[in-house]
């Protein structure tokens, strides 16, 4: 029971630091904010921040190994499931989860913050590469066709990029509730279109 309380306290502290950091980064830009400023705003020591987030970029991309999601979905799926079907369902589920927690409302500001920071752009490229590697490994566990598996992983990463660009196009700045619903519906249509193209291309 005591361990449970400690873990809950640690999680609360982590969430509080993350919320403060996100607000500062979106308001001022990632490169303009220091870890010391995040610590002061969150009323914790700088070392406490680093205990929870080993690097400043981790404060921004505060989702614990989210890039492993596609690989986890493939490993959890029935062995006879089509991997493209699994990946499409996973992408749609993740999109709906982000809508439910309110991430879609700040999506454009989030992406613009990345585009304006060389450090975040570099981290995002690294994350994309790690996603492809982990997804390829998961696919290899199911199917010996390594070339096809590598292609599926690369196409999935490309699909993510295309869909992010589409969301930037259809999501207005300062979108209200009705506009968010409309943007989500448009994104889901785009998801189905993109994955239909992948299916045809992969045969």
TrEMBL record:
This is HTH tetR-type domain-containing protein. It holds the Pfam family TetR_N. Gene3D superfamilies: Homeodomain-like, Tetracycline Repressor, domain 2. Keywords: DNA-binding, Transcription, Transcription regulation. The keyword Transcription regulation applies. Residues 11-71 form the HTH tetR-type domain. It comes from Kribbella hippodromi. PROSITE patterns: HTH_TETR_2 (PS50977). The keyword Transcription applies. InterPro entries: Homeodomain-like_sf, HTH-type_TetR-like_transc_reg, HTH_TetR. Residues 34-53 bind DNA.
